[in-house]
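Z., the sequence and structure:
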Amino acid sequence: MTQPQEKLKAKDFATDLEVRWCPGCGDYSILKQVQSVFAELGFDRDKVAIISGIGCSSRFPYYMNTYGMHSIHGRAPAISTGLKIANPDLDVWVITGDGDGLSIGGNHLLHVLRRNVDLNILLFNNQIYGLTKGQYSPTSELHKRTKSTPLGSIDHPVNPIAFALGADATFIARAMDRDPKHLQAMIKRARQHKGASFLEIYQNCNIFNDGTFLTFTNKETRPQTTVFLEHGQPLVFGKNREKGIRLECTTPVLVDLEKDGYSAGDLWIHDETDRAKAQILSRFFDDPDTGMNTFPRPFGVFYAEDRPCYEDMLWEQVEAATNAQGKGDLDELLSSGLTWEIG
């Protein structure tokens, strides 16, 4: 009689390799939360694969006691697509960064999102190139002074959430390294989604871009600068939840519930199935020209929809063709038609 498999703990998903990130790096928190979620959900390590590209975040597979591959720059989505098609039963996780995923890998990330391959994509965003020692990245703010932009960056920054929406992704969310409870909740939601899930994680690089997200993580400023999205709930924030956001036609408006005479029922009610409203939320971002933003930064699920997965439709086509034409013979196929010999 087969003995029931003992439930794994978070430490069972850790390897014996030395974790070689800088002390204080936000990647440590993300690693811990992923290991904890995998254990809580009862993952079978033999059915999990973690694929990364190049960058600090891409060392992730070394530290997870699962199958994995530290692949090539920007190509983790492409490799993961092939892996998921070949073995649909695998739980495939893509680990990437703002540099790896949105520069050289932007094209691959776009296509895996639009195809809706059933992958879980975690994009660590620290708005800097950390592994190569502090150059500006695609998400770095305008006028950012770095080793590669000593006079300040003149590049308009990529907005990862807007990028994912533009690629017609079916699940889009945002979390941060310094809010472990919420981060775990978002990892679980991403895993529950059938299709390509995209989770942007604000991650502090304490060596080359320390404190870039401090306003959202500091306990003093966080209540005024963040709004947490919950499906069916009003957009309320503030130290005493005294502030809210109304949507007047398509224009978001900040209100003070205590002074302006509004109640929670008068506010914008979050609907994570509404793509148009998700587009508006994605623009609650610093103005590239002024660096200012009057709206709080949203965290949580921006958008989610059900849509057929690429690999499921592909295998349906294969099955239909096989039923109609037979299994076929590869050697016969290669030797059919016009052939020639090179002397």
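The first helix runs from residue 27 to 40. The domain at 10-212 is CATH 3.40.50.970 (Rossmann fold).

Let me know what you think.
H.
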